[in-house]
Design a protein that fits this description.
It is a single chain. With 405 residues, the protein is mainly β. It has three domains: 2-89, no CATH class; 93-104 and 200-401, Beta Barrel (Thrombin, subunit H); 117-193, PDZ domain (Pdz3 Domain). It is built from five helices and 29 strands. The strands form six sheets. Strands 7-16-17-22-21-18 form a six-stranded antiparallel beta barrel. The protein has a six-stranded antiparallel β-barrel with strand order 24-25-26-29-28-27. The radius of gyration is 25 Å and the shape is globular.
């Protein structure tokens, strides 16, 4: 009996080790993006590695924006595991901006922000969405193969069904799915699905940088999420416009401050094409509306070049007047390629503390400069201490803007 137990224990141990390796290998992406001067790192402690000579000689292909290399990931040097495609971006130069701007986003389809029972014409309660798989945060993109791009289109299409079963196509966690749902007739002679939806969002934030070579911009340093679902909004298009600052509410411990502004009757800056967890991106159509200093073009810093200590941020608190304020970079997580909290920062400039109390809502995207290079953007404030917050690496924003990750 004890021999069987030992064999079983050994088998379980081997299976656990195999599982750990599978998880470790799966965690290494098949596609990696780096800048010139950066290196590809893997968990060598697990016996995984890339031979140095392969990083130079294997399948090099030149594209318009990057050099692509195919590297071979090995286990204990001799066991081939998988190929890794590495895109090496040339050193990039940008102009840090710091202007507050208005954002208008239009969703890809309509965003489901809530669900509720419906009282039918027979006075009974119904949940048409039940067992369909649709959840809050999903986007409905078509009904019966007809594209849905607004709330009005959805309402009109559902009413035309006259209570007959319809086929919905929707996006759930980046995956397109389909389901059937039967609208319920209400006492108002309307047909409803029990879904609360939204097709647009608006707000204000800070433009982080302008890249002259591509005429593109990055802003915010984080994505725009729906206020109800807290999910990243899938957008079909968007507009970037100038904004008029109406009021600045100073931040206090436990109560974040904010910049209040309006996007009404303002100048167009450009179009928004991407809403990602590292910021929003698009094309500048009206450069004069950004009111930037084109002489401040600078390189994007590599992570190894960023140091703890003094740095500055650019932000506009007086309608189109951008000023530079001192901050301290307190911590740097050079391994962070998974969220927008790469650096911990602290506002030290008395002028900014007097105006805002520290970091406030609307300052997200304020570019950070150190030693003449663009190093990142402000993303979060610590609610209990508005002097401190987090920032994302500049290289992460640039990589995201070029549609590589």
């Amino acid at each position: 009996m004890w021999k069987k137990n030992i064999k079983r224990a050994i088998l379980i141990f081997i299976l656990i080790i195999i599982y750990i390796y599978i998880i470790a290998i799966d965690a290494i992406p098949n596609q990696i993006v780096i800048f010139e001067g950066e290196s590809v790192k893997v968990n060598s402690a697990m016996g995984l590695g890339i031979k140095e000579e392969e990083a130079v000689t294997t399948n090099i292909e030149k594209t318009s924006d990057a050099t692509t290399k195919t590297l071979k990931l090995n286990l204990f040097e001799n066991i081939f595991v998988k190929d890794i495609n590495v895109s090496v971006l040339p050193k990039t130069t940008v102009i840090p901006v710091g202007n507050i701007a208005g954002v208008k986003l239009y969703t890809d389809g309509v965003l489901v922000v809530g669900m509720s029972e419906i009282e039918g014409v027979d006075a009974k309660r119904y949940k048409p969405y039940e067992n369909t798989g649709i959840e809050e945060g999903d986007s409905i993109i078509s009904i019966n193969q007809n594209t849905i791009s607004s709330t009005d289109e959805l309402i009109e299409t559902v009413n035309r069904s006259e209570g007959k079963e319809i086929k919905l196509k929707y996006i759930h966690e980046e995956e397109t799915k389909e389901c059937s749902i039967t609208p319920v007739k209400t006492g108002d002679n309307e047909y409803k699905l029990g879904l609360w939806v939204r097709d647009s969002a608006a707000g204000v934030g800070t433009v982080t940088y302008y890249e002259p070579s591509t005429k593109t911009f990055g802003a915010l340093g984080h994505g725009i999420t729906d206020i109800d679902t807290e999910e990243l909004i899938h957008i079909a298009s968007g507009e970037f416009v100038t904004t008029k600052i109406l009021n600045i509410i100073k931040g206090e411990n436990g109560v974040p401050g904010k910049i209040q502004g309006t996007v009404e009757n303002q100048k167009d800056i450009g179009t928004i094409s991407k809403n990602t967890k590292y910021g929003i991106y698009g094309t500048v159509k009206n450069l004069s509306a950004l009111n930037i200093d084109t002489s401040r073009e600078m390189e994007v810093a590599l992570r190894k070049e960023i140091k703890t200590g003094k740095a500055t941020i650019l932000c506009s608190l007086d309608n189109q007047k951008v000023e530079e304020y001192e901050i301290e970079i307190e911590k740097i997580d050079t391994q962070n390629s998974y969220n927008n909290k790469s650096m911990k920062i602290k506002v030290t400039d008395e002028r900014l503390l007097e105006k805002t109390g520290g970091i406030i809502q609307g300052m997200s995207g304020s570019p950070i400069i150190q030693n003449g290079k663009f190093v990142g953007a402000v993303t979060h404030v610590l609610v209990n201490n508005p002097q401190e917050g987090y920032a994302v690496f500049g290289d992460m924003m640039i990589k995201q803007s070029k549609e590589v990750s």
